[in-house]
Amino acid sequence: MVSGNGVRVNDIDGLTYVYIPAGTFAMGCSPGDRQCDPDEKLQPGQQVPGFWLGQTEVTQAAWAKTKRPNPSNFKGDQLPVESVDWDQASDYCRTIGGRLPTAKEWEYAARAGTASARYGMLDAIAWYSGNSGESPGDAHSLFIEEPVGRSAGRSGRLVDQSEFHRGCACSRQAAKSGATAPWTK
Predict the structure, then answer these.
(1) Is the pLDDT of residue 166 over 50?
(2) What does the angle CA 110 – CA 108 – CA 61 come to, to the nearest 5 degrees?
(3) How many separate domains does the chain show?
(4) pLDDT single digits (tens) 108-131
(5) Of all helices (H) and strands (E), which one includes residue 79?
(6) 170 — phi, psi (to 5°)?
(7) Within 10 Å of residue 128's Cβ, how many Cβ atoms?
(8) Is pLDDT above 70 for 95?
(9) CB 104 within 8 A of CB 46
(10) What's 167's domain CATH number?
(11) How far apart, in Å, do the first and last CA atoms of the chain sit?
(12) Taking the CB of residue 9, how many other CB atoms lie within 10 A of it?
């Protein structure tokens, strides 16, 4: 179903996907970012073709529409799927007509055209122990007990931009801006 403005609903899983237009960006640690690993050196001039990306993490309801058993420890139709490995997430994406986004695509989408050191203030873009009411020491509960779609995200179009979203978002490559994904009507 077409909703306009580069937004599509996938008929298989019922989730909303947004079109991320092609562009060039500097991948890796931005100048002034003091929380970088040695392998995250700035790589300017990274080109990314346009692609479709899930607006939110994959919900348990969407996962169930693909006839898979729910692996999640915390149950709820609008909670994100958790406790999946890369192979399971990749298989889900293939089933709905997509694939997992690359690291380059994910960072490009999360940065939303900015060059600042962070994708945004953590409280605004993702759920974690500091804003979800969870104990900071309870690492397993981070990012997973809040219904999807409740944090704004930096781009205003993608929400809940945690690293977990990256592992559960599906992408669909598009040949050119305005191209439609084959799983949309």
Answers:
(1) no
(2) 50
(3) 1
(4) 888 877 766 666 666 666 655 666
(5) none
(6) -110, 145
(7) 18
(8) yes
(9) yes
(10) 3.90.1580.10
(11) 5
(12) 16
* Secondary element (H or E) of residue 107: helix 103-111
- For residues 100 and 9, give the distance between their C-alpha atoms in angstroms, rounded to a whole number: 17
Report the relative pairing of strands 43-48 and 23-27 from DSSP bridges: antiparallel
- Are 174 and 49 spatial neighbours (Cβ–Cβ below 8 Å)? yes
Predicted confidence band at 46 (pLDDT cuts at 50, 70, 90)?
very high
Flag whether 64 is in a domain: yes
Confidence at 45, pLDDT banded by 50, 70, 90: very high
How far apart (Å, rounded) are the C-alpha atoms in residues 176 and 89?
26
User: Considering the domain boundaries, does residue 183 fall inside one?
Assistant: no
Please state whether the predicted TM-score (pTM) of the whole model is above 0.70: yes
Contact between 12 and 66 (Cβ < 8 Å): yes
In a domain, 185, yes or no: no
Assess if residue 180 is contained within a domain: no
* Residue 185: how many other CB atoms lie within 10 Å: 9
CA angle 76, 107, 161 (to 5 degrees): 25
| Residues written for the chain | 185
